[in-house]
Amino acid sequence: MSFNIKTEMEKGFVYSNRVLLGNWYESTMLEEHKLNKFMKQMKNGDLLLARFRTMTKNLNQPTILTQSTGSISFGARITLLAPYVSATDPPMNDKKGLLLGGRISSNEIDYFQDLVNGCSVVGLTGLEPANRNTFVISSSDYCNREGEILKYNQEFLLTLASSVNKKPLFVRYDPNPIPGLCGLYPIYLSEHAVSNTRWRILPIQRPNITRFEQEGQPVQVNSDIVINHCSTNVNLGLNTGSWAMDFHGKVCTPLMRTCLDVYGRELPNNIWQIYIPIKS
């Protein structure tokens, strides 16, 4: 009788990882280690969700642009808009306009959550001025030109506005990059102000006036312009046939090529504007 009672009682015991026997002890220690690691990562903000929130806060923080209804000057905070490029993939006629801005990829978010040296520059769909798409027009000849009017064919640097008070980051294009390192994004942010970071603004081709006649005139905001790379003499554009996924939606791949139609005029993906939303 006692033997049968003992057998019925033993049926209620089930071995699990709480039983400190053999490999179950290792399983318990592993679970405890995973929990401690998770708690430590959560406390230090190292979890992917925490990194994403930090990155979103840093990149999408609103900025205030330099208000102007006419010409633009050195030191102005601006955004660069491609007004005639579709902001959707596939394209839609009622949604146009991409802003030039920085991007952090899924491989980079583990190491930094703000734009740093080496981050790629792409076309962004959002038109709200933020840290990721706001630039400052800086002098390229080591002279203090703060407040001077920017003119056509005058060299300048595009400096990321959020990096001005830290280590400045400049928009750079290398004509002969190392194969395999450039990938889809030929333009990136660099902390070195070299010849490949120099740009100039050209007026668009018009039938009634030449570019030579407009050289030296002030650059107007919210008007069509061409952004030319000084070292290679090619124009900045967007490759509307190449899109990539980003944390905040799709982004358009930049294109360093002078795209002309049969009449020698720039195509829409080569046309930009110094975009300053005018408050009414």
TrEMBL record:
A GO BP entry: cilium assembly
InterPro entries in the record: CF161
Pfam families recorded: CFAP161
Top-level division of the source organism's lineage: Eukaryota
Gene Ontology CC terms: motile cilium
Protein's name in the database: Cilia- and flagella-associated protein 161-like
Organism: Parnassius mnemosyne (clouded apollo)
Source species taxonomy: Eukaryota, Metazoa, Ecdysozoa, Arthropoda, Hexapoda
